[in-house]
Amino acid sequence: MNLEEFRKRAHEAVDWVAAYYENLEKKPVKSQSKPNDIYNQIPDRAPKSPEPFDALMNDLNNIIMPGITHWQHPHFHAYFPANASFPSIIAEILTAGMGAQCMVWETSPAAAELEERMMEWLKNLMKLPTTWSGVIHDTASTATLTAILSAREQITQFAINNHGFEHQKLRVYCSTETHSSIEKGAKIAGIGKENVVKIPVDEQMAMNPKLLDLAIESDLKNGFIPCCVIAAIGTTSTVAIDPTDEIGLICQRHNVWLHVDAAYAGSAMILPEMDYLRKGLEYADSFVFNPHKWLFTNFDLSAYFVKDKNALIDTFEILPEYLKTKTRGLVNDYRDWGIQLGRRFRALKLWFVMRSFGVENMQKTLRNHIDWAKWFEKQIADHPDLEILVPRSLNVLVFRVDNHKSSQEELNQMNENLLQSINNTGKAFITHTKVNGKYGLRVVLGQTYLKERHVQELWDLLQNHVDIKN
Prior knowledge:
By secondary structure, the protein is α/β, with parallel strands linked by helices. It is 42% helix and 13% strand. Helix 3 packs antiparallel against helix 12 (347-382) and helix 8 runs parallel beside helix 9 (244-254). The protein starts with a helix and ends with a helix.
């Protein structure tokens, strides 16, 4: 492909994207494909000679698109959103065109300095501690692993980095509701899955700090080394808020690294009225949230902040001859701030989003999502055959059908069938969780281009299917 054909085909690709969004609501939200439907349509070997671009686009439309679940559909209410927006898409195109590898300042000064400034913008907007330093990672899973590794080195005075594991018996603590990436991080860090201590939760599904304190005290008596506590501002299943202030005091008393995972809910900190989410953050050693979830920025972009950037850099820094530069120590070389050496120019899309939306419109959109979730919660509460399983947290609802006559097992099956029947319509996509053994439907009202009418449509769809089940 030469430059002129690239110009022509790239314009066609942008037109394709625009048409995709224009017609998105006509598509089934969740892919209707069966296992191997796509695989079996793709040849088992690459072509020997070039194929025309029209053939590629034809196969994209006819083979690939039927196997795509449409995460940007306004009726995508599953998991957590991976929100895109038009300014972010444009920035992604420009980033791909530049093809910059932004591992150190020298390789693209603008990438490093824009990233530094964007982290400052977020810190200011969210009223995070002014002494924190920020860096962009790909996902919160990577950021959490980064925190666990930093905590490991801090508590062992960098002995494991230098000498490997000897006889250290490190412990990581989190609630029973916290994300699976913590166990994965502990496995990768060499701490081990068995040394992840799951702390029970209260009725709000938040970590019980008294039981955390008891667990740490017990481990100290039994020769273990408390290494890291992960508190969640918004757990995965129910968006429960752990009491960071109480947890922070415990960590301070025991000299344990506190990492705060606010992957989804952290975006709400751009709202001044959400001050309660910031309670206790002054105790945190590290903090992460994902603008790619609820802040209109294409996946992947995770914002990671640390209290002591030197503890972070000392954990990951390594300096082969070919990476030595004259500017070292004068600028941020972000390849020392995490696991990856190679780094994408992610800051550009965050810059485009924040400037294109403006703070007021970002705040307005999040407030709309929360207000519509309040309305949806009231409809559920007023319905005779629906039960809220945990109080609404921000814009996430967990509830179930309860006909007041079936057993728990029968209700679980009934709700699972209800979820499948809703998703099979193609009109919406929701997922489930379990709360104290109860199978619940889980709805997130947070897609970038969600409108009030979509919330009403979802409620109508739910009502109709509840009536059918009963």
